[in-house]
Specification:
Number of helices: 3
CATH superfamily: Jelly Rolls
CATH architecture: Sandwich
Structural class: mainly beta
Helix content: 10-25%
Strand order of the largest sheet: 3-4-5-11-6-9
CATH topology: Jelly Rolls
Largest sheet: 6 strands, antiparallel
Number of domains: 1
Distance between the termini: 40 Å
Radius of gyration: 18 Å
Shape: globular
Order of helices and strands: EEEEEHHEEEEEEH
Low-confidence stretches: none
Strand content: 35-45%
Length: 192
C-alpha cells in the first residue's frame, strides 16, 4: 500500500507582524531506510531548546536525519512501516547497526541475541506515537501490545520495537520530546 504524499503548511510572520503562510507543499525530507526496506521517514519539523524559538528561521528538517529530538527540543515525523518479513525477522538484527546509523543514532539499537525483535531500541525521550492507518504491535522486553488506527502510545524511554504483523504497511505519527531519565531508572539501566 502506498500513501498519498504528506502536505506541510508552515506559518510565519511578515516584516510588519502579519501572519503569513511561509511554505505550503510536500515535505522536503522523505528518507527510505536502506537496511529496512519499505520503511520511510517523513520529517515534518523539529524544535531546539525550551522554550522553542518562534520566528522565521530556516527549515529544521533539512540536513542529516536524526532519530532522537534535539537537546531540550522536539521532533515530529510520520513513519511508514512495512510488514515484518521472514527474512527480516531471521537476519534483520545483523543490519540494525547500519539502519540506526542511517537514522542518526547508532547507539539506540539494543538488539542482542535473544531480543524479542530485531528493531529493539531505546532513546532518552518521551515519544507520542499515533497509529494513523493500519496495525502495529508495540514490543517491549517481556510483552507485546496490538495497536490499531487511532490508538496512541506514550513511550517513556523504554526498550521497544515496532513490529508490523498485519500484512500491510502501517503509517504512524510520532512526536518525540527530549527527556532525562529519573535517577533510579538511570541506575537500573546502567546496572543491566
Amino acid at each position: 500500500m502506498t500513501f498519498k504524499p504528506l502536505r506541510r503548511v508552515v506559518t510565519g510572520h511578515a516584516p510588519d507582524g502579519r501572519a503569513i503562510v511561509a511554505s505550503d507543499g510536500p515535505l522536503p525530507t522523505v528518507v527510505p531506510i536502506e537496511k529496512i526496506p519499505g520503511t520511510v521517514f517523513h520529517e515534518i519539523w523539529s524544535t531546539e531548546g525550551a522554550p522553542a524559538g518562534v520566528g522565521n528561521g530556516p527549515d529544521p528538517t533539512l540536513g542529516a536525519l536524526r532519530l532522537p529530538p534535539p537537546a531540550r527540543g522536539t521532533r515530529i515525523r510520520v513513519v511508514d512501516i512495512p510488514p515484518d518479513s521472514a527474512d527480516f525477522l531471521a537476519h534483520g538484527a545483523a543490519r540494525m547497526k547500519d539502519a540506526f546509523t542511517q537514522i542518526g543514532d547508532a547507539a539506540a539499537s539494543t538488539v542482542k541475541t535473544g531480543s524479542p525483535h530485531p528493531l529493539m531500541h531505546r532513546t532518552e525521550s518521551v515519544d507520542y506515537g499515533v497509529v494513523l492507518d493500519g496495525e502495529m504491535t508495540l514490543v517491549l522486553d517481556d510483552s507485546a501490545t496490538l495497536l490499531r488506527a487511532g490508538d496512541i502510545v506514550i513511550q517513556r524511554g523504554s526498550n521497544h520495537a515496532w513490529a508490523n504483523r498485519s500484512g500491510r504497511v502501517c503509517r504512524m505519527l510520532f512526536v518525540l520530546v527530549d527527556g532525562v531519565y529519573d535517577p533510579a531508572i538511570r541506575a537500573a539501566l546502567d546496572g543491566r
